[in-house]
Amino acid sequence: MSKRPPFLKTGDTIGILCTARYVNMEQIQPAIKLFESWGLRVKLGDSIGAEWNIFGGDDELRAKNLSDFFVDAEIKAIVCARGGYGTLRMIDKVDFSALDRNPKWLIGFSDVTALHAHINTCLNMPSIHGQMALNIENKSAEAHETLRKALFGEALSFSYQNDFDFTRHGTAEGELVGGNLALIYAVQGSVSELDTDGKILFLEEVEEWLYNVDRMLWNLKRSGKLDNLKGLIIGGFSQLLDNDIPFGMTYEEIIWEKVKDYDYPVCFNFPSGHIDDNRALILGSKVKLEVGEDVSLRFTTQ
């Protein structure tokens, strides 16, 4: 990525806002304390505490808040308060021109995948798939530390034992892209559509019906999004749902069915997604993936 934002340093300001569902001041106090413990100042957006139906203010307010934070020279990074649903409703109202001129880090996951895809593809800029402000106190020490390292530009790598049934060994190097499966599916055919060609794709999902996981993955396969990958990383697929008459396949079997005929490395159970151990990933950065008896992922450029 040619437009990497500057890494943070002590004394910098991080902004917190809502692009999707509502949060109140009390809910984000642990995040404020954590960021302040890193030596950062915190600035809150007008969408914090605002409420319109399930959202953190109406679409216009949330879009203006994000656009204003892009313009605000004091703010060096922006963390989304929570996901849920709502980012797609306001993304076309956001003015990305200030971000394009003066890159800064955007942090979030889940529903924020819409912004990651747009920023990575349209602005050629990396962003951070990491824990949002809500419930940050319940996440692992590794989730906190990898987010701090990603923001401050410290070396970032991951390794864990590969004891999963579905896997394909191999080594790959390339740009890391991805995020939440449902949101990657939702931006297909739009200006924010994710470019996966020659990339290492990361996927995660939560509270989704197994049949819908199958449907979305068939869409990715039929649209060619899985054809020319360098590698595939499967993170948390948690709290999945099934019908009274079972779908008949696990999520691992559903995914493997779509990628078994390719030759790129595939790993499961990566520690990122809607799980307590939600470690931060820098989307849009070059990485080296090694899948063998252990899985390792190392960021070669940040």
Automatic annotation (TrEMBL):
Source organism: Solitalea koreensis
GO molecular function: carboxypeptidase activity; serine-type peptidase activity
Record-linked CDD domains: Peptidase_S66
InterPro entries for the chain: Carboxypeptidase_A_C_sf, Class_I_gatase-like, LdcA_N, Peptidase_S66_N, Peptidase_S66C, S66_fam
Domain LD-carboxypeptidase C-terminal per the UniProt entry, residue ranges: 173-289
SUPFAM superfamilies per record: Class I glutamine amidotransferase-like (SSF52317), LD-carboxypeptidase A C-terminal domain-like (SSF141986)
Protein name from the UniProt record: Muramoyltetrapeptide carboxypeptidase
The keyword Repeat is annotated on this UniProt entry: no
Family per record: Belongs to the peptidase S66 family.
Biological process, per Gene Ontology: proteolysis
UniProtKB keywords: Carboxypeptidase, Hydrolase, Protease, Serine protease
UniProt domain LD-carboxypeptidase N-terminal: residue ranges: 14-130
Location of the active site: 110 (nucleophile), 204 (charge relay system), 274 (charge relay system)
